[in-house]
Amino acid sequence: MSKLLAALFCLLLAGPLRSLGQPKSGLVAPRLRVIVDNDFSGDPDGLFQLAHLLLSPSVEVRAIIGSHLKVGDGFDPSATQADNAARKAAELVALLRLTGRVPVLAGANLGMANDSTPVRSAGVDFIIKEALRTDTQLPLYVLCGAGLTEIASAALTEPRLAGRLTLVWIGGPEYPDLALPPPHAPAPEYNLGIDPAAARAVFNRTRLPLWQVPRDAYRQVLLPYAQLLTQVKPKGKIGAYLSASIESLMARLPQYHLNIGETYILGDSPLVLLTALQSSFEADPSSSDYALRLAPRLSAQGTYEVNPTGRPIRVYRRLDTALLLNDFLAKLALLGK
Q1: Residue 210 clears pLDDT 50, i.e. is over it
Q2: Which of 214, 262, 307, 312 might form a disulfide with 172, Cβ 3.0–4.6 angstroms?
Q3: Can you tell me the distance from the alpha carbon of 298 to that of 314, in angstroms, rounded to the nearest whole number?
Q4: Beta carbons within 10 angstroms of residue 24's beta carbon
Q5: What pLDDT, on a 0 to 100 scale, did the predictor assign at position 18?
Q6: What is the torsion angle, in degrees rounded to the nearest 10, for the CA atoms of residue 326, residue 329, residue 334 and residue 337?
Q7: Average pLDDT over residues 160-175
Q8: Whole domain around residue 120: which residue ranges?
Q9: Reduced 3-state DSSP string for the chain
Q10: Does some domain include residue 130?
């Protein structure tokens, strides 16, 4: 049976590896393109999301962009956060033996000065170039698991992007009529607070199609520590690497009088659920629920204001965490075979 599983996994992996330069074969081929933008030197949930995406044969990963955190963030208080994020992403790519097959780029190390002045970075340039391609019919998704500096800057620089991609963003506070904030919730919400000017630019100044996963939704993706120990950590070098990223954090937190209990929020992993794990026919994230809203205006305080002229956006409310986590753990198990 183990040989059969190994053969099946080779067929499944043929999709993403082909998109990164491997021979054509296998039953699953890419049906969409993605650019991944995340703060990989920050919360380790971004590394889990990236590993899961790179193991998903239905997506063609066009580039990985390392993005900055808020200035002085405890995860990485340096002045080179985006550069450090790119290096962390490159480490994971190397563990999966994909070095050289997908570009790993650094975004800007600082956010936007205001909501109308874009930054310039290799990440911004790549988003624009990829979105303006005319030699492929695969739809493009830009997946942002942290701040919105690069996509906001790209859209301000090149307004045509609004008709050429879908932005999936993990971030923003709860919508008051849909959910309540958690106890002691910080304001602004963490990812919005990384670059508030960029978030205001996306909501208030662009027409980008947006699928938003606000805080009440992304907090649903809970990985039990027992499952980390039994189904992630034993799965080769990549399992050990991912487990160490969380366990090292858990070991540091007591000095800050923090006790996170026995679950960890893999809040960035909905980026995989909403793209790679879309339904087979009439492709869509059919097992997760969203509300269709007119995009609100974002205030300077990071709160929502009614905007009658806002574009329709998806606000995800309930995520299929069983599909998401089962798929991730199964791909790790098959990789181990």
Answers
A1: yes
A2: 214
A3: 16
A4: 8
A5: 41
A6: -140
A7: 97
A8: 2-223+267-336
A9: CHHHHHHHHHHHHHHHHHHCCCCCCCCCCCCEEEEEEECCCCCCHHHHHHHHHHCCCCEEEEEEEECCCCCCCCCCCCCCHHHHHHHHHHHHHHHCCCCCCCCEEECCCCCCCCCCCCCCCHHHHHHHHHHCCCCCCCCEEEEECCCCHHHHHHHHHCHHHHHCCEEEEECCCCCCCCCCCCCCCCCCCHHHHHCHHHHHHHHHHCCCCEEEECHHHHCCCEEEHHHHHHHHCCCHHHHHHHHHHHHHHHHHHHHHCCCCCCEEECCCCHHHHCCCCCCCCCCCCCCCEEEEEECCEECCCCCEECCCCCCEEEEEEECCHHHHHHHHHHHHHHHHC
A10: yes
Could you give the count of Cα atoms lying within 13 Å of 225 in the half-sphere of its Cβ? Answer: 11
Number of domains in the chain: 1
What CATH number corresponds to the domain at position 44? 3.90.245.10
pLDDT tens by residue, 67-87: 999 999 999 999 999 999 999
> Can you tell me the mean pLDDT for 56-77?
97
Candidates 120, 114, 137, 262; CA nearest to 195 is 114
Does residue 247 sit within a domain?
no
Residue 253: inside a domain, yes or no? no
pLDDT 10s digits, 236-267: 999 999 999 999 999 999 998 999 999 999 99
Let me know how long the chain is: 337
Residue 312, domain member (yes or no): yes
Judge if pTM exceeds 0.90: yes
Report the distance separating Cα 327 and Cα 46, nearest Å: 17
Range of lowest pLDDT (75-79, 122-126, 240-244, 333-337)? 333-337
Q: Which residues neighbour 156 within 8 Å (Cβ) at sequence distance 6 or greater?
A: 116, 117, 118, 201, 205, 206
